[in-house]
Amino acid sequence: MAENSESLGTVPEHERILQEIESTLRSVYDDQPNAHKKFMEKLDACIRNHDKEIEKMCNFHHQGFVDAITELLKVRTDAEKLKVQVTDTNRRFQDAGKEVIVHTEDIIRCRIQQRNITTVVEKLQLCLPVLEMYSKLKEQMSAKRYYSALKTMEQLENVYFPWVSQYRFCQLMIENLPKLREDIKEISMSDLKDFLESIRKHSDKIGETAMKQAQHQKTFSVSLQKQNKMKFGKNMYINRDRIPEERNETVLKHSLEEEDENEEEILTVQDLVDFSPVYRCLHIYSVLGDEETFENYYRKQRKKQARLVLQPQSNMHETVDGYRRYFTQIVGFFVVEDHILHVTQGLVTRAYTDELWNMALSKIIAVLRAHSSYCTDPDLVLELKNLIVIFADTLQGYGFPVNRLFDLLFEIRDQYNETLLKKWAGVFRDIFEEDNYSPIPVVNEEEYKIVISKFPFQDPDLEKQSFPKKFPMSQSVPHIYIQVKEFIYASLKFSESLHRSSTEIDDMLRKSTNLLLTRTLSSCLLNLIRKPHIGLTELVQIIINTTHLEQACKYLEDFITNITNISQETVHTTRLYGLSTFKDARHAAEGEIYTKLNQKIDEFVQLADYDWTMSEPDGRASGYLMDLINFLRSIFQVFTHLPGKVAQTACMSACQHLSTSLMQMLLDSELKQISMGAVQQFNLDVIQCELFASSEPVPGFQGDTLQLAFIDLRQLLDLFMVWDWSTYLADYGQPASKYLRVNPNTALTLLEKMKDTSKKNNIFAQFRKNDRDKQKLIETVVKQLRSLVNGMSQHM
């Protein structure tokens, strides 16, 4: 390399010299014509000078050279002798060292072998740990101890491989480790997938176990609370009867013993699920530095499973098993997530589980709200409520907020009350259908006590009576009272375990009971009252029944107070609206009595068959009217059990309606003529009506109040019977008029019916025979009445 660099440096120098020579020669040949000649002369002179100097130098060193040659010739003989001696010595040394050379080569060869052996041993000692660790790695892979295998790989890479990195087998091992890592990742991911599929299939079993545990803990706590309450002497309502303390203690002791036995049988979530695949996979990915990928995959898959779990079956609302399966799957899912949260670091976080729970909770509420709306069976709704409570308590025990679920329960409570109301509407209808609407008869003390035990009835007068005797109400009253209590119990069932105060439960019970009374029972009563087959006797009994049911409302309030231990004197305590409910029903029944009574009167009146052209009356009242009066007398006898004002109003309404019906009969537009004999016969019927009114069919009327119902008919008939038209016309409009109640239009209509001068009219035939002036008088009266009517219409 140095020679090349030197030659490279010389070349430019030579080029420079050549350029100078070239320039010199060019100047020699180019300057003057004789320059070349002069140059050559100078060059020859210079050469001659150099030859002289060389000759002088050679002459000066010639003697020394000759002396040196002479010395060399002298040494030549000695040198040849020495050469012979050296050659002989060398030969003898060669012959003597042949054996030594052989042994020396053997020694060298042995030393080399020994050194190689030592080197091999050292290298093998260096490689053996690597091979042992690699063998250990293979064993760990075969035994599926992947986390340990990864740790072994780390040791091989960091500690052992650097010792033997120059060997080919080491390079093969190093190249094989990434493949082993990928195999471990795939295997662990496969195990994780199997684990995820397993918990998806068994999430309902996991959830069922967790819910049983939560229910067991809650039952145990409630049992202890009940036991503590009993120590202070407090009785509790269990089912529908008050159970004594001794029996309560026995029941609770037996319950606690059963719970202790069952506690051993309940498995934990860890017993049902092998979480080792998750741990292994997490550790493996952590060691591989790919923990984030594993976390993202796990969370993504679990979110997919959450969506599947939250998707309900279309017929879930048909049976309680559908709801139970739905809840257990969700609980199982979140129990697993909670366990993963607490036993792993970072795989799932509290923020992740909260987000997942909020998403699930919104979906759960929407699903329950939609499916529960199809439930028409209150027992199914109650089962759903109990499942939601257990579901909420279970997840609350794992730290998930469940307030929105209890808010949903209040919505479902309203729906539960609606289903109860529909169910009890059917119960009330059946009770009303089966009732005979007759007072309850009892023949002995035992039957009397049975009725009293069902319904809080108190009447000292009835107690003093001898057997057999009758309660004023019918069988439907105690049945309805019992069913109202049953409704309160049913409503109370939903309020249990809602974590509400006694005041709130009391308010809920009273409001639902009010709905039962004001809406369901009231509607059933109104429908019953309006049924065509319900007669007057039944309506009277219904009024009596509602009176006793109204009086029983205070006992229902006491009943609720005993359940909730909330005094009725509390400011915010809701009152039962039984007073208004039964009062409205009574008013409806009273109105229906008036309507049906009037309808019955109309039926009798339709049987009337007057001969409006008769010349003389029969001398007795019409048969239809006597039958009607007898009917009214019997009906008003039944009314004696009604409140006085109701019976009086019914009687007055009947008389007024009868009076109006008779008046309409006279003024019927289809009736063209009326004889005086018919008027006299009609007068006999009105007299019977007046006699009936004066006989006081219903006690409590003052004076002739009831007779005033027929005053319009009486004054009209008196006017025609006496024929006192001059007095009527003269006193018309005066407060003291004798015929104050006679309307001119009514009198004119009736008079025109009597004015017919046909031969069939006996009255006017007599007029023509006896006194034609009366005919003129009638015509004059008719004209005056018409003038009076026209004047009244003009003023109006």
TrEMBL record:
Biological function: Component of the exocyst complex involved in the docking of exocytic vesicles with fusion sites on the plasma membrane.
Exocyst complex component EXOC6/Sec15 N-terminal domain location: 42-211
Record's keyword annotation contains Protein transport: yes
Keyword Oxidoreductase (UniProt): no
Descriptive protein name: Exocyst complex component
UniProt GO cellular component terms: exocyst; plasma membrane
Gene Ontology BP terms: intracellular protein transport; vesicle tethering involved in exocytosis
Name of one Pfam family that matches: EXOC6_Sec15_N
Residue ranges of domain Exocyst complex subunit EXOC6/Sec15 C-terminal in the record: 405-753
Gene3D superfamilies in the record: Dsl1p vesicle tethering complex, Tip20p subunit, domain D, Exocyst complex subunit Sec15 C-terminal domain, N-terminal subdomain
UniProt keyword terms in alphabetical order: Exocytosis, Protein transport, Transport
Family named by the database record: Belongs to the SEC15 family.
